[in-house]
Predict the 3D structure of the following.
Amino acid sequence: MPAPDRSVDSFKYLSPASRAISESMIARAPREPVPWTPLSRPLSASTVSLVSTAGISMKGDPPFDAEGERENPWWGDPSYRIIPREATEADIDVSHLHIETAHIYEDLDVALPLRRLGELEREGFIGRAAPSHYSFMGYLLDPTEFLEVTVPAIIERMRRERVDVAVFVPV
Amino acid sequence: MIPALTAAWGAPRVAGIEFPFGRPLGQPHDAGTQRAVLRATLEALRGVEEAGTIVHLPFEWAELADRVQWHPKEPAPIARLLRRDPAAFKRLVEGELPSEASRRR
């Protein structure tokens, strides 16, 4: 049941060790102004694209490099994959070594809600779901390559598809 | 899914939810909750006018936190490594990354 006016506990499911690492990352975040982009048009006229950190790839595309991470646990695959809007759990693989992935194989919408987005499009709540959605693998202690190579490539494709709203869906 | 971390690192608008890792939209096949969460997330876009704001979504996970199965069956490689190497854990918490973090091998 919804309980209004409650604060989400960011650390509810974390072990003390993982919490210590997360709090340290929060303490070390740069104190810079965040660029602000106002909504360019109403949601009912906006094109929406989803970005999942679950390490989802289409069958037929190479999966994320989990073996590389097993060999070198400090490293995470910084690449991305395109997930077309019609994709379902029958079409995908999930390569993320930090979560139970069985729920995503059972129902892709638990992490990349493409069917739910399609429903909001049919209701007219959003203008349209973009043709392309995206996934990367969220365990990246050093995000340099991700920021320099992956993010610009995703942005370029989003611009080509005239995306107004990017919904980032961490897992 | 650590909204405080996402906001600290510069996401302009954050919709926080207290759901377990791996299932940010809800349980498999619970289309009603999934749709409500996605809709509430998109609605947060309209309400927020200042970068760094966290909108706390009012959804409750039905299971008790200590019953939730979100960990992978095989522990993540870094979790095993840090358990074996307390000095590496300490350095990581202090913000020090080894050069291995920057390349596959």
